[in-house]
Batch of 2 targets.
Target 1
Amino acid sequence: MTPIIVAERLTKSYGPRIAVDSVSLEVETGEVMGLLGPNGSGKTTILRILTGYLRASSGTARIAGLDIARDALAVKQRVGYVPENAPLYDGMRVREFLAFMARIKGLAGPAVPPAVEAACARLALEPVVDRQVGTLSKGFRQRVAIAQALLGSPAVLILDEPGNGLDPKQIIEMRGLIRSLAGSLTILVTSHILAEMERMADRVAILLQGRLLAVRVLRSAGAAVRLRLRVRGDEALVRACLGRVPGVHAVALAAPAHSGVAAYRVEVDGPSVAEPIAVRLVQGGFGLLSLDEDPVDLEALFLELTGGAAAAPSPEMA
Amino acid sequence: MKRFGALLGKETQAVFSSPIAYAVIAVFLVLLGYSFTSILFLNKIGTLQHIFFQMAALLLLLLPVVTMRLLAEERKTGTLELLLTSPVLEIEVVLAKFVASMAVVVVMLGLSLAYPTVLAIYGTPDWGPIYAGYLGLLLFAGALVALGLTASSLTANQVVAAVVSLGIFFLLWMIDSLGYLLPDPFDTLSVNLSLLAHVSPFVLGSVFLSDVGFFVSVILLGLLFSVRALARR
């Protein structure tokens, strides 16, 4: 795949304070890339530079092959942006606001109503389309903000802390929405919540104090994944049974048996191996209590990268 | 042009959907109506000279209320980020806000046409000074709006923007009085910077190109500073 966002040695300083320190990053077309880090780690500043709101002190960035400084308008045409806390014009009605955003994104008069209708349908905004933006719940505000970002068919969607201020149900909906947009769009999203990022992003870039510490793959089509199982039965027999399933590379005990039920971590070729595992275990007479993908332990990774010295981002769950 | 049209529509709607514009227009007309009536009954002369000076003073006091929110509010609520990350130019944003604010001025001045109409019904006013006065007030208000827009572009606090605008307006209004204390050539400079010195000829019925040029220059400078303030990010 080709990278659609390429940032090279981006630096932003405010006097002596360096907010972003020589960050180089590539985002592949169609992937969901997460920027993870504690508050003040430079996530928002990077997004603001990429969207043209801030100018980098040094370094360059290209989006869809266009330089963000030289071709600012063309870049903005290709990027949909949802700033943190979804700032919107509270006095406007939803339809009116989206029509305004469509027009300033260059949509011609007759193309505006269908584009607004399509965005409303995609974000399930029909029930509130004639309400004033200022009266909406945070969940709907966030949807309206995403809807405006999708107007004009951008190639890249950039979201800054989309889960901020949402309740758990709204966070789950938001995550589902972002995952549903992945593939058709390249998505760059920030969060300081580990669990949220684990569930949303294909890859994650970990930032601390303006520096990029590492980029890790969280999920990738066709790549090896880890499964976590809870199985009732003799440990040795379960291991043997799992070992015979095609696509299984390694089996490790995640938690020792308690009341005959043990937890296992299984390295497999891909998520599709889960089904033959379940079939083989059930046919073998074992009790399969649960079978899930085991996400990368971002908390452990973050602590490992920072040497445990830095405060980890919030592990709070959605 | 399409984008500018959208921005202008949104700004005009924002200005006229807020009670501020109506409060400003109402106060302007009530105070002006009171003055017009009392002056007309006192001297019984069909002229608007006094009224025009009073209109200038009222614009100076009231326009900071109109301009204070223009960019400060966008900065405070974060919508400036939304706007400036959309494919629009800073100059389009600034011009749309300027034109929308001038629409309030045009409504104020338009409604004040009731006074020359009354004079025309009951007397035979000299129309030259009236046309010149309105032209002067329009240019004067344009300069105030452009300067107010600059003040609003520098802060996220609307009250600060209003107070700074008022300070600048007052300073430029009476800076000519400082001329008596200053040596040459600063005395001439201070007189030439005075808003009062440049609006007075219009009110008295004289249109000088130098006065028109002064107000146009202030308007362009104000817009330029506002664009620069937005672009400096």
Target 2
Amino acid sequence: MSGLLQEMTAKALKLNIPLNVQLDLTYRCNERCVHCYLDHHDHGEMSTAEITHLLDEMADAGVFILTLSGGEIFLRKDFFEILEHARRLMFCVKLKTNAVLIREKEAARLRGLGIESIQISIYSHRPEVHDAITLVPGSLKRSVEAIRFLKSQGLKVIIANVLMIQNMQDYQGVRALAADLGVECTLDPTVTPMMDGDRSVLGLNVDPSSLRQVFRDASLVGDVDEFCAIPAPAGEDELNSTPCSAGHTACYVSPYGDVFPCVQFPLPTGNVRKQRFVDIWRDSDEMNDVRSIRLKDLPTCSSCSHVGSCTRCPGLAYMEGNMRGPSSQDCEKSFARTGIPSANMLAKKPASAKLVQIRSQPTPATVSASAAIA
Amino acid sequence: MSRLYLARNPRVAARSLDGEMMIMSGRDSTLFTLNKTATILWQSADGATPLDEIVEQRICAEFEVEPAEALQDAETLARELATHEILEVSEQPIVERRASGDSR
């Protein structure tokens, strides 16, 4: 984040402005990614009029960065109508898509609308791996072609690569593909639970030794010694800080109008079909509860040696049962990075049988201390 | 002296935060913030109102400043914003706008 954006974010935090919103336009999708956290059936998406009205409300509330995502956004027949409305309101618009439906014509329209960036999911440089994750034959070819169309229009494209068991060996190939295409590439080693709480997809997460390998790859993390350093003790300022931007300067709105602190934090706070967006943002008890949390208030994490450097996600913690509790996936990441178990991991560790028991009993002078070890 | 007209570039992103405009360049995503005077220029840049009228009616009315000096400063500022493709500056009214430039 640039210094100026940090400054603006700090100002928005002070003024309670939702600077950054992700709006999912649909959960329908033309891919069936094996790790996806969504139910793709349409349970009553907002209409065009409802969405444009919501965008008006968001602009009035001060939202600046608007991420349109899904599902697959291009499945909405009114997608460009919505996008045009968003740009008339001068949002900084970012798109998330698989790009399968983007051809030259769509790329040119996007260029004309002045969007900030387009994030496209690519899981592997090899079709047999990427297509086996999306479950759509030919999807890698289509997505890569779309990237070329978008690049030829001068648009900023970011490849997003979610790392899981199936594509663990391919991330360098994806990075090389990104370099060849002249686009940025991000890597996320976190598969998240489904929004309905189903955790079965977590089995796709890479194993701890692979995670350690990723965190020690200098081409990804830069200075490995610094990235994997033993965490410094948290200071007073860190303990008084907020866990992340969810509910503070950012939130998420589903295709059905439900407002959550974040896409990864499915705590219902209100619905824009029943209330004004700004009223939910400012007055929802749940949103204010999220806002009240400081690191020092977290029962387990506040005493953890990683508290100052952990990527703890309060949404993942919520999905584990307690938004003030630990997020086990982030505990595992902190451990993979530093080799130091988190407070949560230590607390969960089964009480080990005592290997050494020194009994206080009279022993003959000739018996050494070691003999007293049972 | 010819009159100048200003228009917001519809390719930028913009939002007012506590009275100051945040503007993100459509060219390279560089973020700018405009001070109060520049924010007035931005908000008044409708392509139809000449700069001297904006200065007289909006800037001199709000700040204690000499009109001639204010106009010179405003023109310098407008041309600087034009180099970043935030504003368009023309000696003719700028009527063809693709976006409304609703700068809330």
